[in-house]
């Protein structure tokens, strides 16, 4: 029997793993340290019974934190200034937006992993929340994480900005966004979707929250209409690229590397970009989408967009 | 075999059923007709797959709509004017608050009824959402109903008022409110709670949203600090009275009258006001709480509070 590490080494890599530029690493480490502190402080120390523990378990010490990084990178690009140079109210708004998108993401994973959905037992290399705390507590923890995201956004000095951010997040998470995409996913098992149908599903299921991360960062950073339009094109291409790579990794990576169960799409007979386009076709499509994301950044309105550029590279070349 | 109607007639009534005053009936019919139209319009006509149908099934054509009525009655009391005389933006805010609290209530019922929670098959006289649409769709429908409540509040002409209402609702629904109360409930099965512990659980589990209904109505209606304080005392007493009566009905009513499974607290070995105080003690306590709710209204700051007075009577004397 192979250990996860051994089989990871034996699995062909989907794309060359490029080491990010040193300044990107330093930037993301600094931003994530701040997000982790804020999440730790926000996460329900007074929640009764096992609820607070389950909420913390679902969010802390795990995950790539791609969405908070997108919020921060978009905010800095829109503001044309690094985090340290932002006005206090702006900094607060960006940080709360970064935490809020991660809380929504975490809640969706907790509910997705439940036995009535994907019935998954492994997430971020740990037992899933319902395995650790029971299904009922996992259900409640997901519910409470969703509403905590809105509470965080609505409780800030710039109330009008908080409300605008909360409305963007609600639309992305709701029945026309993430929840709607999950409903399409449920209805698609065993069906042959067209590429357009598959893309529509993923635009909602994962793309809407990734796009909202970029748009919320842009809004909090004070983007004008032209910058917002360019960043929206970036977020749309990136969101789709993310899912195409996810489908590739589901085929070529192993559970130890992914930190979640590999090969489950094929096992569940779910349509994927790989099943529709083949492995090489899906890889090529991801590269094309990456190029689209980069191109959106090189238009006039977005300055200071190197970090967004690097983030898109990171999404494409990630191994988990 | 008895039909539900026959056994309802044979069941001793928990309290005399008083017919509400004619003006209260006309008032509630008019307010509810408006709320039903607004919910019907808000409920996800474009949601993909079965999600929209499940969301509509969970909310429309059922329920006492106590929470929307509390929003309306508190708003009219705070404004000192009936709905028809409110300014347009105020009217919109009150109506959206009324819909939002009902969406949160409906989502909580959908998730509560799931097999991993109460595993209930009957609600409002119909099969529960997961029986009708499957567990996965019920889970998603609950998630989408929760976020729709915030979308409704945040999408209105008076954005600042919408944000303030959404923050009140988030706190009431979250880990320190409704979700926290449910976590205590999960942890309390088979334990002997003190009366203080039982009240703390219900203050969160059902009381927080009932109180928020009153407070959101008060805020939307423009209550000053003194009126808000009096209405808060009213909402606290009413919220607790509601749960005491619920426990009484669980013992003395039958499923046909309740529209949900009767006797399930005792079957689940859950602590209740009846198990702690006895049937007569619980009834007396409900009457005392009703008197407290009425007394709060008779203090100086709240004029035009007859409808709130009548609503409290209705809560106490309801048979389901």
From TrEMBL, chains A, B:
<keyword id="KW-0808">Transferase</keyword>
<feature type="compositionally biased region" description="Polar residues">
    <location>
        <begin position="1"/>
        <end position="10"/>
    </location>
</feature>
<comment type="similarity">
    <text>Belongs to the FPP/GGPP synthase family.</text>
</comment>
<dbReference type="GO" id="GO:0005737">
    <property type="term" value="C:cytoplasm"/>
</dbReference>
<dbReference type="GO" id="GO:0004659">
    <property type="term" value="F:prenyltransferase activity"/>
</dbReference>
<dbReference type="InterPro" id="IPR033749">
    <property type="entry name" value="Polyprenyl_synt_CS"/>
</dbReference>
<dbReference type="GO" id="GO:0016114">
    <property type="term" value="P:terpenoid biosynthetic process"/>
</dbReference>
<dbReference type="GO" id="GO:0046872">
    <property type="term" value="F:metal ion binding"/>
</dbReference>
<keyword id="KW-0479">Metal-binding</keyword>
<dbReference type="InterPro" id="IPR008949">
    <property type="entry name" value="Isoprenoid_synthase_dom_sf"/>
</dbReference>
<feature type="region of interest" description="Disordered">
    <location>
        <begin position="1"/>
        <end position="22"/>
    </location>
</feature>
<protein>
    <submittedName>
        <fullName>Geranylgeranyl pyrophosphate synthase</fullName>
    </submittedName>
</protein>
<dbReference type="InterPro" id="IPR000092">
    <property type="entry name" value="Polyprenyl_synt"/>
</dbReference>
<keyword id="KW-0414">Isoprene biosynthesis</keyword>
<keyword id="KW-0460">Magnesium</keyword>
<dbReference type="InterPro" id="IPR053378">
    <property type="entry name" value="Prenyl_diphosphate_synthase"/>
</dbReference>
<dbReference type="Pfam" id="PF00348">
    <property type="entry name" value="polyprenyl_synt"/>
</dbReference>
